[in-house]
Design goal:
The chain has about 280 residues and is α/β, with parallel strands linked by helices. It has a single domain, classed as LigB-like (Protocatechuate 4,5-dioxygenase, Chain B), CATH 3.40.830. It is built from 8 helices and 10 strands. It has helices at about 15-30, 55-70, 110-115, 135-140, 160-175, 195-210, 215-220, 230-245, and strands at about 5, 45-50, 75-80, 90-95, 100, 105, 150-155, 180-185, 250-255, 270-275. Strand 5 (about 100) and strand 6 (about 105) form a beta hairpin. The longest helix has 18 residues, at about 160-175. It is globular.
Length: about 280
């Protein structure tokens, strides 16, 4: 039985369950962002950052507060995330049956993953952090509920591939009957002065908020925006559109690393929710 062990534990987040939970609790209690005042009929998913918890946990937590408050607990989180290493196939689901960290073991939904008929490739996931760092938040906020994951790694982040992923998610759900939620793992502008990063991010956000998935790709290319998860974002948008063409998408929290560790150049973190 193949188990993927955590590779950034002790660096991106603490190395014991108690310390991980204590840190998430401390960030939540800081109250930097209020709990979202939304009452959605259906949540299709969210865009969430993937940096160290101490930096981007503030933007991640509001989404999980919302689903916990409304008691929306999917069977499976499909985590679509970028490939930072360049290893593996252009699109890849992990071959592991379990993902393990200090909190415990999380099953991979092999039935759903197989029904999606995307390539399996362990190389793409072996050293990749952008799905791993989100999982402890699910474990914390859904501690009394069972869930599984399907991690989908995107090296080739085109709109064409994003549409394919959305199509294959629907195919998998149709074949298995799973209730799912899509998480698009993405950090926004990298290592720019805060004002410049905010300006660059807005090119992407304008297309997102206008529900223009192809426009996200164009905005990133035309403006050289250093957003590392445009493919996952477009995958979520296409999935939401397939379920409800008039779906809503809103910003939950927007900030940057300089708010935690002051710097002239920062990384931006923005969380959004797609819902009906």
């Amino acid at each position: 039985m193949r188990i993927r062990t955590a590779v950034v534990e002790g660096r991106f987040y603490p190395s014991t369950k108690s310390k991980i939970f204590d840190q998430i609790m401390e960030i939540e209690q800081s109250g930097r962002y209020p709990e979202p005042d939304l009452s959605p009929n259906q949540i299709f998913g969210a865009v969430l950052p993937h940096a160290g918890h101490i930096y981007s946990g503030y933007q991640t937590i509001p989404f999980f507060q919302l689903i916990r408050r409304h008691r929306i607990f999917p069977d499976t989180f499909v985590i679509v995330h970028p490939n930072h290493s360049g290893h593996g196939t252009p699109l890849a689901i992990d071959e592991s049956v379990l993902w393990s960290n200090a909190i415990g073991e999380v099953p991979v939904d092999i039935e759903l993953a197989s029904a999606m008929e995307l390539p399996f490739d362990k190389r793409a996931h072996a050293r990749e952090h952008s799905a791993e760092v989100i999982i402890p938040f699910i474990q914390y906020f859904l501690s009394d509920h069972q869930f599984s994951i399907v991690p989908v790694c995107m090296m080739d982040q085109t709109h064409k591939n994003a549409s394919l992923i959305a199509e294959r998610i629907n195919q998998g759900v149709d074949r298995t009957g799973r209730s799912i939620m899509v998480i698009a793992s993405c950090d926004f502008s990298h290592f720019l002065p805060p004002a410049e990063g905010h300006k660059q991010d807005q090119f992407i956000l304008d297309s997102i908020l206008n529900r223009n998935a192809p426009g996200v790709e164009r905005a990133a290319i035309e403006n050289c925006v250093t957003v590392c998860g445009v493919g996952p974002i477009m995958s979520l948008m296409e999935y939401a559109h397939s379920k409800s063409p008039d779906y809503q998408i809103e910003i939950l929290a927007r900030g940057h690393s300089g708010e935690v560790s002051p710097s002239l150049e920062v990384v931006d973190y923005i969380s959004l929710i797609a819902y009906k």
